[in-house]
Design goal:
The chain is α/β, with parallel strands linked by helices. It has a domain of about 200 residues: NAD(P)-binding Rossmann-like Domain (Rossmann fold, 3-Layer(aba) Sandwich), CATH 3.40.50.720. Helices cover about 40% and strands about 20% of the residues. The strands form four sheets. The chain has a seven-stranded parallel beta sheet, with helices on both faces.
Length: about 300
């Protein structure tokens, strides 16, 4: 049974990785927030702690999963964001190189500036904000310095449910649960949702295929924040009870003050070319996500 060390595994994506890999791999999952019984403590920002913990486990792969993903927090805390999102990646690469094992790094569609409608694996990133800059810096460091690596660029992440999801879908669900009958949804942001379980499953397929390198990895289908919100309301059967009012991003400018790309739409070109693309349509994935994680969430 091969071994995987998963660092920063306490979030929505870490949970999916644990569920997808735990049956057939020996895992050591660590984080600074021990919110699951299968987590152990390690702060990957502390190089000596990180190095010692990974070496003791002696894995076949090092998955470096965790990062700060709140754009406003990252913008207001650039030094902390650099250490967490960039410097820790250097730690992971040095450790994986010393052990002669592949390192996995999670990147994001947010590294593009949104000037194009759709981005494939070969388009040149142009990050707009502190978060995106640190994620792209981590990506470049892995590409230029790791002896063997996987880089997977995710889109609009969904997963983890009420316990772990801090993204768009949970924010919508929270508003509905609170009794709001009108949702204000931006009509000028476009992207590709990414269900954590589909993401982890496709990562496993690539890993076991023997391939390495950089891949876009998102659900199939190009969409928008507005379309996602409409789909949620439809799935919940609330189209007659909740009004969706379209607004521009300026409506939320005070709360979400960091510049975001107009389009974060990715296509899985390399995965498809290599016949390794098993990502489902986003509509199918979001229906499963709501069914699995939010079945008893709403008391309507």
């Amino acid at each position: 049974m091969k071994k995987i060390y998963m660092a920063g595994c306490g979030g929505m994506l870490g949970e999916a990785f644990y569920k997808v890999f735990s049956q057939d791999y020996k895992l050591k999952c660590t984080d600074i927030d021990l919110n699951e019984k299968w987590l152990e403590y390690c702060d990957f920002r502390d190089f000596e702690m990180y190095k010692s913990d990974v070496e003791k486990f002696n894995p076949d792969y090092l998955f470096h999963i965790g990062a700060f993903t709140d754009l406003e927090y990252c913008e207001l805390h650039p030094e902390e964001t650099y250490i967490t999102n960039e410097k820790s990646v250097e730690h992971a690469v040095k450790i994986s190189n010393s052990l002669k094992i592949p390192v996995l790094y999670i990147s994001t569609a947010g590294i593009f500036d949104g000037s194009k409608d759709v981005y494939d694996d070969f388009d040149l990133p142009a990050p707009l904000c502190q978060y995106a800059k640190t994620k792209y810096a981590g990506e470049k460091y892995v590409e230029n310095n790791a002896n063997a690596f996987f880089i997977f660029r995710a889109g609009w992440m969904m997963g983890g449910g009420p316990k772990k999801d801090k993204k768009f879908i949970h924010k919508i669900m929270t508003q509905i649960k609170s009794g709001q009958k009108e949702l204000f949804i931006v009509n000028d942001k476009f992207g590709t949702p990414t269900y954590t379980h589909d993401f982890a499953g496709n990562v496993r397929l690539v890993l076991e295929s023997g391939k390495r390198g950089l891949y876009n990895l998102v659900c199939e289908g190009l969409t928008s924040r507005l379309d996602v919100a409409k789909k949620i309301i439809t799935i919940l059967g609330l189209t007659d009870k909740i009004i969706i009012t379209q607004v521009s991003s300026e409506y939320f400018a005070e709360e979400y003050f960091v510049k975001r790309p107009k389009s974060e739409r990715l296509i899985n070109k390399k995965l498809s070319d290599e016949k390794l693309n098993i990502m489902r349509p986003w509509e199918v994935a979001i229906e499963e996500y709501l069914s699995e994680y939010y079945n008893n969430y709403l008391d309507l």
